[in-house]
Specification:
8 strands; eight-stranded mixed β-sheet; alpha+beta; 292 residues
Length: 292
């Protein structure tokens, strides 16, 4: 007898699943699958809740905001020697410039003028055209150079102002802010406590935006932290739910607009951090801080 293939194929899949679930074997299989899934879900949820409740660390995010050098640094003796060597090599291998070719033409013209058979009609310039020698040009350029006064590279008074982002133009500076911790004032990188629902980079951006006065314009360098600092509270202050702080650092560079000075902010060089930051904290920051 032929199987009614057409009618069988037209029946929905849920029909067969329901018939199989109603059988004793189907009940056993679906009951086992449901039990395993519920156990896994409840176990995973319990594990997440337990880990969250067991974490005794307070998460924080900080910004390592750098002001990159504005002017080039003074060359050291090796750089000066190498620069002179490059100039000598370029002088030996280069061709004559237009000015040097003109110097040769002027010297040749002067030589012809000093001969007895010199005829001015043979020159390729008009009688009414003023002759400007290359030596005259060099004298004019020399006078213009003497009148030019370059801006000072070192500002002694401005360099002493630690609150100004315009100090030490040839160095890389780091922004530190004044924080209140246990009734004491500490200098740290701008930082804030993490809030549930935001990323750590979002916390770092919020820490920068919450600075006093106008927040400096900054460009963050990636979404991943470049370092972490772990601080344990004193034994007397520790509890089962509060053991200490974990601070994640994010790098950023100062924008084109200069940051306004503020007494609660300082711009420090890498070798000045140890004077104001806690030693262990400063050591952790110096590990990922580029001395540009």
């Amino acid at each position: 007898m032929a199987v009614p293939y057409g009618r069988t194929a037209c029946r929905p899949l849920l029909y067969y699943i329901s018939r199989f679930r109603g059988s004793p074997a189907g009940k056993c299989v679906f009951c086992q699958l449901s039990t395993d899934t519920s156990l896994r879900r409840s176990g995973l949820h319990t594990q997440i809740v337990t880990e969250k409740q067991r974490s005794p660390w307070t998460l924080m995010a900080a910004v390592c905001l750098q002001r990159l050098p504005v002017i080039s640094a003074d060359p050291n003796p090796i750089e000066l020697q190498f620069g002179r060597l490059l100039q000598e090599m370029e002088l030996e291998t280069s061709i004559l410039s237009e000015h040097e070719l003109r110097l040769q033409d002027d010297a040749e013209r002067l030589r012809r003028m000093q001969t007895d058979g010199y005829d001015s009609d043979e020159e390729d310039y008009r009688k009414d055209q003023e002759i400007v020698l290359t030596q005259d040009l060099e004298d004019a350029w020399e006078q213009k150079l003497k009148s030019f006064q370059p801006a000072a590279r070192v500002h002694a008074e401005a360099d002493k102002d630690l609150t100004s982002a315009r100090r030490r133009l040839a160095d890389s500076l780091v922004l530190v802010s004044e924080q209140q911790a246990g009734g004491k004032k500490l200098w740290t990188l701008p930082q804030a406590e993490w809030r549930e629902g935001e990323t750590l980079r979002g916390t770092a951006e919020r820490a920068l935006a919450s600075l006093p006065d106008a927040a400096p314009e900054a460009t963050f360098l990636g979404n991943a932290p470049c370092g972490v600092y772990k601080y344990k509270l004193p034994r007397a202050a520790r509890t089962d739910t509060s053991l200490g702080f974990k601070i994640f650092f994010f790098k950023a560079v100062l924008g084109a607009a200069p940051a306004p000075p503020s007494p609660a902010l300082m711009w420090l060089r890498k070798d000045e951090l140890q004077r104001f930051l806690k030693p262990a904290y400063a050591t952790k920051v110096e590990r990922f801080l580029l001395g540009l």
